[in-house]
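Format notes (please read before filing issues)

Several people have asked whether sequences and structure tokens are stored in separate files. They are not. Every record keeps both together, in the order shown below: the sequence lines, then the token lines. Line labels are part of the format and must not be stripped during preprocessing.
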Amino acid sequence: MISHVLKLCKEKVKKRKTKSAKRKAKIRIRIPALRFKFIMKHQLTGKIVSDKMDKTVVVLVERLKEHPKYRRRYKVSKKYKAHDEKGEYKIGDVVVIEECRPISADKRWKVVKEVVAAEVKDKESKNKKGKKEGDQDQDKEE
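Then the structure lines:
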């Protein structure tokens, strides 16, 4: 009698093992292997505020935020430090930055491309324009 009960228990244990093994096999089959070759990363557009650091630019990103109760929209700005390997971007350039792995304690973004180049303004051209306008004012007074 005891041997018969032991045999039944052993069979139940074997059945349990096989069922769980089958379940695991089914689960493995059901879940497809998802492998992305290209992962889209966050991109932001902003204006370069500072380029004084070596291989780093500070980009000011502005966005519109809406007040939850009053529905009034207002500007919110944030500065991001972005990696510029060649040092080709200057103050005033509008650029696109993309998130990447941490490069330093503050840098987690890199500059991807330039959207709009900054206007180059010479001090001499400003002085000439200022003098011309001043000369015209003196002529009017006379």
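For reference, the curators noted about this record: The first strand starts at residue 43 and ends at 50. The chain has a mean pLDDT of 78.
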